[in-house]
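Illustration: Pyridoxal 5'-phosphate synthase subunit PdxT.
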Amino acid sequence: MIRIGVLALQGAVSEHIRSIEECGAEAVVVKNTSDLDLVDGLILPGGESTAMRKLIDRFEMLKPLRQFAAAGKPMFGTCAGLILLAKNLVGYDFAHIGVLDATVERNSFGRQVDSFETKLEIRDIAEDFPAVFIRAPHIVDVGENVEVLARFEGRIVMARQGHLLGCSFHPELTDDHRITAYFTGMVKETLAKTVHL
Ligand SMILES: NC(=O)CC[C@H](N)C(=O)O
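Result:
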């Protein structure tokens, strides 16, 4: 069985665990570098990116997370997790993990209290995905190797660059597991390639 980890330093962890299990994979709570060694793919959950970064530094996980991505292992950032993955952040002169070739702006959809749900058309995944946005970021711009998978009101809200996937919203907060299933498929494909090397 494939193993998918959820970075569990802060944020919406348990819902991702449930969704991974619904998709027939083993879910692993990742709290440190040795947990990271156990997994074939990693979900970076929503929450608060600044708080998550502090904890990543405290547990000395920044370099291991970058190495995980450099090794070609799939990573999926949702909301704050997307902010962690992005190479460029509007208004900041640094990135966190900094591997997804995209420029991301934080808190793009209104004030701090704002959250909403909408149906999204997502390329290759769904025509009507129930997407929950909570103080969500959006993708301002992407590099040429990045495929845009979904937009909301013209703004990019989901994108993929090879083994890296990111979205602005919280796919784990509904009972619709199609996005987690898609990521599970990415992990399976990567493993199949690795085994044949
Ligand atoms: N739901 C979320 O993950 C919100 C992200 C948060 N606003 C941040 O900038 O980190």
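Reading the tokens back as a structure: Helices lie at 14-22, 33-36, 49-58, 62-70, 80-85, 178-196.
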